Amino acid sequence: MAHGPYSSFGSISQKQGVCLRVSTRTPKKPNSALRKIAKVRFSNRHDIFAHIPGEGHNSQEHSIVLVRGGRVKDSPGVKSHRIRGVKDLLGILDHRKGISKYGAERPKSK
């Protein structure tokens, strides 16, 4: 995501916002899926679409979320990601690999 005076993020890497709507969107050709996205409003009144990574989520309207940059290549207009396991968006339970990306807790070693 671009940083600068005209960007929604300004010069910072993560920003907190309020979820306005949770929906799905179909990707560009030749891909086929239902990508989970959310419309998020920042305190500077900018509205953006943010991708919800991973399988399943507990997102709903009015939840407080943390957003980072990074576009989704096959979804037009989606230029940021929500961060799992922070604020109101839960992490993914029992996720073994890439646990920091999905807000999962470290598995208990036997």
Q: Describe it for me?
A:
The chain is mostly beta strands and 110 residues long. Helices cover 4% and strands 33% of the residues. The protein has 1 helix and 5 strands, in the order βββββα. The protein has a 5-stranded mixed beta barrel with strand order 1-2-3-5-4. The longest helix has 4 residues, at 99-102. The model has no long low-confidence stretch (mean pLDDT 88). Its main location: mitochondrion. This is Ribosomal protein S12, mitochondrial.
Helix content: under 10%
What string gives the helices and strands in order?
EEEEEH
Largest sheet properties: 5 strands, mixed, barrel
pLDDT below 50 for ≥5 consecutive residues: which ranges?
A: none
Strand order of the largest sheet: 1-2-3-5-4
Question: Would you state the CATH class of the domain at 14-88?
Answer: Mainly Beta
CATH superfamily of the domain at 14-88: Nucleic acid-binding proteins
Assign an overall shape: globular
Mean pLDDT across residues: 88
Distance between the termini: 41 Å
What integer value in Å does the Rg equal? 14 Å
What name is given to the CATH topology of the domain at 14-88? OB fold (Dihydrolipoamide Acetyltransferase, E2P)
Number of strands: 5
User: What structural class do the secondary elements suggest?
Assistant: mainly beta
Any guess at the CATH architecture of the domain at 14-88?
A: Beta Barrel
Number of helical segments? 1
Strand content: 25-35%
